[in-house]
Amino acid sequence: MTIYRGPQAFPRTEYLGRLAAVKKEMSQRDLDALVVTSASDITYLTGYTALSGYVPQGLVVLIAEEEPTFVLRRMDAPAAIYETFLDRIKIIGYPEALIGNPDTDGYDTIIDFLLESGLGNRGIGVEVSTLFFQTTEKFKRRLPKARIVDCTHAVAWIRLVKSDREIEIMREAAAISDAAILRAAEVIRPGVREADAIAEILGTLARGANGKPGTMIQQIGLCSSPRTGTCHIPWSEDVFRDGSQINLELGGVRYGYCAGIMRTFSIGAPSDRLRRIHDAEVAGLGAALETIRPG
Q: Is the pTM of this model over 0.90?
């Protein structure tokens, strides 16, 4: 079945604006190409959210071309066609023979593309922190005449400045988070299994809020008494009890934007210690909000 471009969260002009900011940074660093391998950065620059980053993939931004080129596993190329604003000729799928290959992998396809583009002796940026040491060395070995520059966080700093449309989507994600927390408050009761409560919360995260469904499920953390000190673990096979403290962390998602939130529930009256901690955290949050200013 032929895959066509799906609905876009952002207009093409916004993606091109983001790329223009990246190219400005590249120009300041005297780079002709930037290989983007951070999944979050790829999402920001293209709209791609598929979970394929466990194998080699990279978005190659060329300063001389309007659209970047996305190199990824061939089986994931249809997802890139569907999700991104890119022209399909800008999506290169490498063969399955490169998966699990001890000698040659998808990064070799990216390097081949750079060489074929005449960039073997130019400045090339790489997000080193997202790559294995062996992969970084491969770029240096196969591009011996190129100037390899570590551009870790270069795109991330650009991402910090949000557009009006981004803020709108983040608010949609936050509304989903709020709805999930409210559902949690309804289902957390003595005798209820943690797994059953999570099932209800997950349903809300998927259904969304205000007519806007969630577009992905992020990892949920839930730890209840007597495991409240075990941060970031998933739910257990246990049940809630009278006197239980429940720490819940989740995030509604819209188009790759996650609005994280954490709440603590108490079945019955909270302990004096828990109240003191709560009051201190609320005071600290208020002080932070009063202090934070642009610049």
A: yes
